[in-house]
TrEMBL record:
Keywords (A to Z) from UniProt: Disulfide bond, Glycoprotein, Repeat, Signal
SMART domains: LamB
Coiled-coil features, chain-numbered ranges: none
Annotated protein name in UniProt: Alkaline phosphatase D family protein
Pfam families per UniProt: Laminin_B (PF00052), PhoD (PF09423), PhoD_N (PF16655)
Domain Laminin IV type A: 565-732
SUPFAM superfamilies per the UniProt record, alphabetical: Metallo-dependent phosphatases
PROSITE patterns the UniProt entry points to: LAMININ_IVA, TAT
Region of interest (Disordered), ranges: 141-188
Biased composition (Basic and acidic residues): 173-186
Lineage, broadest ranks: Archaea, Methanobacteriati, Methanobacteriota, Stenosarchaea group, Halobacteria
Amino acid sequence: MAGTHSNGRDDSATNNRRGFLQTIGLAATTTGLVGTAAADAGADQADDGSDDEGEGPLIELTHGVAAGDVTATTATVWARAGRDATIHVAYSHDRAFDSVGYDRTAVDGESDYTGQVRLEGLESGTEYRYHVWATTTETSYRPLRDRDGGAGARGRGRSEEDGSKRSGRNGRGQREKPGDNGRNGEEAADDAIPDAVESGTFVTAPAPDDEASVSFAWSGDTWGYGDDPIEPPFPGLRTIAEREPDFFLYHGDTIYADAQTPAGKITEDTPIDEALEIYRDKYKEMRDPPAEIAERTNLRELLETTSVYTVWDDHEVINNFAGPIEPLMPEGRRAFREYWPLDRDDDAEPGESNRFYDSFRWGKHVELFVIDTRQYRDPNVDLDSKTLLGREQLEWLKGALADSDATWKLLASPAPLGHPSDSWATPADRTGYEAELLEVVEHIQTEPISNLVVVAGDVHKSVVGAFDPDDDGEFEFVEAIAGPLGAPAGKPDDLYPALNPTEFFAKGEYANFGTVDVDESGETLTIGIYDEHGTEQFTKTIHTDDIDAGADPASAGRIESTFDGDADGWLISQNGGSNHPVYRESGGNSGGHVSDEENQGGVAWYYQAPFKFLGDREAFYGGILSFDLRQEQTDRQFDAEPVEGGDVLLASGDAKLVYEFRGADSNPGEEWTTFEAPLSADATWIDLTSQEPIATEERFREVLADLEALRIRGEYRSGDDTSYLDNVVLSR
């Protein structure tokens, strides 16, 4: 391969090249062909007729190599040839490469000459070195030393004392630094590997019962954005490689298909039959940028030094795309699978497999849950309840989290749960995904799911916070957001108030990445945020007793918001969107309260309850919802239609129950007025989604058992209006 992309391999990515050559039988020649042995192995060649078993002309690997989706016993190696070829992988946990495993795969134009080779039977918690090359033939390969009756083509010889088991920091010793290849001063010319051979390293996961430390890094959002692209090289990728993490979580927007780069630009008007080649070219330029842009991106350097778990988000297809309604999605999905070392779907076929979600265990203390928030999502239109995950993935996630006995559960969600975006929490846009977020949060509480930490990206800023949605004084989960690596960064927003957040750190407008380190005992998990050059911005160590999701939300006898300290997570719901009310420290009934004003017209707006009021509330059937309201002015009053929500709305999925106050005091006055809505079918609740106009007890209990929305009318005056709310109490 041309010297412009040696990626430091001649100095660091291989060890004992002479041993490697003798083991796999490659030698460089002036014609660029593969020989069958180094000179000192000639007798072995002659004895077994290996001149008939040469691998044929060596073909250049065009875009480096990568290892990914590593488990305790498997790994997937990715490479791309320049034409129809057989891609070969030799690998070893022995520094001298005396013990070697091997496998291969054929590639052709159907997959753009990309291929993934699954390595099996690996040792857990072990550093592996691998070498990849491509040939024009499909001849079976046998290590030279086995050609006189050894283990055979695919045998994986094991050394009793190979010295590669992990020890020291993170369970493994110091990796060799550039310039120290275990060569002991041998002349490079004696054992130079052909340029067409690419090399890399990875570490297998510790066994599930192994009390091992785990360290990983995550970030995403690289290569260009809109009219102001941030161009490579991306220092953050190099900095992450230098940290030597156990693995890298490439957390979405690994390309920007819809940004103008030399590879082109995907738009809504791009013909489907042209889109696949643009997607493919985007991945190629992320590994090898055009010379006029940069010499490198630093991605190849990172992928050669550790393994990767790759997640997709929207820009792998087109900005903010929503699942199956996007006609370009199948082509974007196909290219994503072609260009990453994925091993999450046993039935994967080029362009056809849909599953990118899975879990990966790293010893006794860590399990990583990778989810897909794009492929199955409903479009972001005006619906009360929408899905990001799809029912099948959601049920898998709930079951996998509940079944995990790992000390720490790491949820890799491309979209944050607690920071506003176009996904889970959308207070500034149309609402609806919050219903699924509520289902996830309630599941965390009721199972309970211990020590859950969410790592996220997508929003181009770094934020760390913790969330107590049931307001019991204990955090249900912690979330850390990192990125971008290359795209322009923005300023952080307030965390989603309905989840009752505590913000530990927030910083925007810089390139950054995050790290997670779990100690060998499993007692602590440390989150770090670093700028692209490795300068620490924030660290926080969390202990296992800092996150307690054990409370049963159905056990509460009284839930209230008195607004004496803050807005308590309440939102304003209006015209299909939502925003934040104004918090006032005094003037309530008594103490603090919240308020809002509106001059836009349209349907009535509502105060929207936070998550602590929602979930399984069937135990409150027969109880009371009470609250205090007042208005700034009481003229020009109007009645809200039931379809708008009446005076109080309770909702669960498509089911909606509406209550209307009647009589002379049905509207709030200029002084505080207390309202009580009985939570019973004996009161007159209107059922908007049933053939029965009045809610039955069965229907009422059904809604309360999975309460997804509680809204209290705030607007009573047509035109400009100001409303105030205090002392909301749900009691049995």
